[in-house]
């Protein structure tokens, strides 16, 4: 198993109290597999990823429990230096907004080359050649000429490719992509996702794709973990999830998205609002919005029940959810 | 089951996390710029569920800030004794007796006497009035003049903005102290007004720049467009929408500038072009005392110390105000 | 004169060019950003027209021009037969009452220093003839109720609400003057998925209840299809294809529309194998430097010499003029041809499992 997150807990200490951003999250990614982590605001999906990468803002954030096993080693027990070495070499992250993730005063060639100079000890000249090679690989036209350009001179889609190039430079084993295409136009999104899929196949990397877009997930994921209020509420292989969701939240999401190929009547709407992490509802965090909520949901936190060999659902009534069509 | 109104949203959900909680959390938990940021229910804030404006949030933060409390109390004290110096200094600052010149402290005269035989304690206390008056009035003048000119330039843009920017450029190029020496040396009056006038004349460009930038930023918000789409007049947009949202940086800079204006007055008085005797100013006292520093340091120490503490108090206040008004959306 | 069946809004040749200048004191124009470069469409009473396109296509600029936030460089906008682009002063103010806007970003479209009651009530302060002073508070509370918010929150401030609720407040503000047309510029893009459906449903309901006409601008093709009667596709400042939602989504004839539709991810994993993906090459040209002839030709797989010389008109393509098929709608392409891009119905089942053929 490439990455295994076990019972992770992350808190934020704010002026108004302690916000529990991540409340006991378990998920795993195998080599070469694409895991999609699906969730909305406040679900904790980004915080989990930042904890894995080790880039969480430590005050006010705090990892209050759990393990993150990367190739068998618990990252949380490693020192800062060791984590830094892993970051970039074996684990890389792609962010949503390339413009603010790239250094605006360094040329693109320099930024890409820096990876090789720092981690592989290459000379500047060699590193620059490698950088151009990378830019070619992510299909940036006229790579050699453009290696001296600055991030703002590229379009949004190109910048995202450059970020992908930076992430892939040292051929990591795991890539975490946090909403990589949310800010992009749909045609550019298609280009970028296609590129990512191709490169991932080529290098046999594991990919954690964090998103809220059910369409993108359907396109690229092998397995899906759905998060809500800092917990995993459902995990499943991709086909099973769409065909027959086992958690009311997943079901609600799937039913509420308008579809390109259908013109429906009124959209199904999940009532209520995403939870406030300072005051997570007791019992099942989803119960105020759940059409199937009963008394037990208000008091008991549902554990992850086994739906089938590869499927889990954190709902007291997963069977009823599954059967109801 | 009673009919659920559409707004009974977060029945088990929590209270609102206001802008306060949102601050730190947003940084790490911003789940993408296109998603909702601070989730919350429509219920009240805090136990009473009362509406909370951004100003009251800022005030709440300010009250808890020890820097604000300390500087606030100090300034309050300074203001009180500048209005009623006789509360703590019963003697006349101009009651000088050369026979007592440069004498050290003795009962009834804790700070001793200066070169003219005047009571240093009394003069120090009365000097506060000058400094506070000059500081406050200059700041008011600068803020009004600079705020209005800069704000209008930022709002209307175009030629107004170009002209104003060039004018402020010119003024920025004038060295302040040198300018003071030149302009104020022709003034014979010994009151505070020429000094205040000079400070306002040279100080307004700084505020104008801030105001202009702040107004331009505020103008870009959709709610200004929304008001215009409704048919709002320019004056309504300026008064209702732009000013309340653009004023925070101006307040911060003005508060800090207050401290520097006090220091400037002292400098000008020290150089002999600011206030002149019989006016009482720390600058004058410092100037007179500087030659006796070796023999009778108390003459210099007390006014200089008072000046430093006063300037510091205002700058600290400005810092605290900035921290309170700074978090996003304030 | 405006007759009963005439469109409530008619836009012809709408143009907005932003000049690019050089020089500090005496500015010389060296070019222009052609944000909107000749747009024609009609909006019928009670209809929803969706405008889709990607960033830079000019759809947001069209929105601003319609509510007169910016003056057009050319063209006409006819509201009930009268050209409103030339109006000013009191006449313009009167027209503003009838065409209102809902903005995209719930975090910047409400003045953070005003209470919700003030925000929704401001239209009445600007147009006092719509509501006499005594009745305003009641009207505001009614509006809050209509959009699904508790009227007791009239004294709260925007930051005390979530994004979806703020958007509702913005919608309430837009309804205050009883407009006939609402221009919604990406009203749900900034909201969480689970909240988007709530707001879309609300807009739908309000349209029926208040007899509104909508111009719905968005980049999310699925949402647009759901709410619109007709849809127009914009590219680089012009409409390249326009028709009913069925015509556009099921029978697109313009290559850009086809590429756009094929790029939208469908929430069904089985579509992976069955779907034909049209991946466009290259970037969108800059609106300051629009290609000659057909502006899409630099990325089009069908581009030929004619496309460089001749600007294609937005009209029913010649080859389809005599046919009866739904592909017979306006399209700006010399080589327009129908192509099914959205995966056909029978290959999937609706998500959440409504069919049981597994």
How would you characterize this protein structure?
The complex is a heterotrimer of chains A (325), B (330) and C (358). Chain A is of the alpha/beta class and 325 residues long. Chain A is 36% helix and 24% strand. Chain A has a single domain (3-105, 150-323), classed as Rossmann fold. Chain A has helices spanning 45-53, 80-89, 98-101, 108-120, 124-137, 143-146, 156-168, 186-203, 214-220, 238-243, 248-256, 295-299, 318-323; strands spanning 3-14, 17-29, 34-38, 61-70, 73-74, 91-94, 174-178, 206-211, 223-228, 231-237, 305-308, 311-313. In chain A, strand 1 and strand 2 (17-29) form a beta hairpin. In chain A, helix 4 (108-120) crosses helix 5 and helix 7 (156-168) packs parallel to helix 8 (186-203). The longest helix of chain A has 18 residues, at 186-203. Chain B has a domain at 61-82 and 123-325: MetI-like (MetI-like fold, Orthogonal Bundle). Chain B is mostly helical and 330 residues long. The model of chain B is unreliable at 1-48 (pLDDT under 50). Helix content of chain B is 64%, strand content 0%. In chain C, the strands form 2 sheets. Chain C has a 7-stranded mixed sheet, sandwiched between helices. Classes of the chains: A alpha/beta (325), B mainly alpha (330), C alpha/beta (358). The interface between A and B is large, with 44 and 29 residues.
